[in-house]
Amino acid sequence: MEGLLTSENFKEFIKEIVSDNYLNIQQLEAGLKKHLNLISKQINLGQLSSIYIAPPTPQNPEGIKVFNILFYSPDGFGSEPYEKNYGTGEGGILTLTFNTCGEKEWTDEELKELDVIADIIYILSSKVRVTMKVKEMSDVISQLSQR
After folding, report:
1. 98 DSSP β-pair partners
2. What is the C-alpha separation between 112 and 108, in angstroms, rounded?
3. What is the C-alpha to C-alpha distance for residues 63 and 3, in angstroms, rounded to an integer?
4. pTM higher than the cut 0.85
5. Do 7 and 103 form a contact (C-beta atoms < 8 A)?
6. DSSP secondary structure, 79-130, as one string
7. 42 phi and psi, to 5 degrees?
8. How far apart are CA 113 and CA 85, in angstroms?
9. What is the Cβ-side half-sphere exposure of residue 100, based on CA atoms within 13 angstroms?
10. 8 A C-beta contact, residue 26 and residue 40
């Protein structure tokens, strides 16, 4: 039996999600919404949502709190969520919440596969946040050098 990580759909998902050059979180979220369809049925995904919370900084004095639905199945989703939490370099927290499609429960093996998917999403979001900071700093340096 073929597992998720060796399936052609997962390989295509990884190829697509990694080849897109996301410059901001909104682009990453749009890419996830588009590409999660490749594996959603195989992992019985009904919904995937994210919450990102970051403390106040000089650039964001109010802090950040963003909720987004990254995937939603037209068949609905179950009520028992599976959550993964990640700390971020700026002191924030990213929470990914997975729900099954329908009331089916995930097996331990399927939960391990969700862990891999969550880790991939976290790694990609970290890369995008670093890219955004580099661009922000490059813009500041450029403005200072023009003075």
Report:
1. 48, 82
2. 6
3. 40
4. yes
5. no
6. S--EEEEEE-TTS-EEEEEEEESTTPPPPHHHHHHHHHHHHHHHHHHHHHHH
7. -65, -30
8. 16
9. 11
10. no
CA angle 34, 35, 41 (to 5 degrees): 110
Q: How far apart are CA 123 and CA 134, in angstroms?
A: 17
Question: What φ, ψ does residue 110 adopt, rounded to 5°?
Answer: -65, -35
Residues 124/25, Cβ–Cβ less than 8 Å: no
What type of residue is 99? N
Distance, CA of 16 to chain centre: 14
Token pair recorded at residue 98 = 């997975």
- What is the per-residue pLDDT across 28-77, written as a single tens digit (0 to 9) for each? 999 999 999 999 999 999 999 999 999 998 878 899 899 999 999 998 89
CB contact at 8 A, 90 and 51: no
Tell me 13's DSSP state: H
**Across the chain, what does the average pLDDT equal?**
89
Residues 121 and 113 sit within 8 Å (Cβ to Cβ): no
Alpha-carbon span 116 to 3, nearest angstrom:
13
**32: enclosing H helix or E strand:** helix 25-35
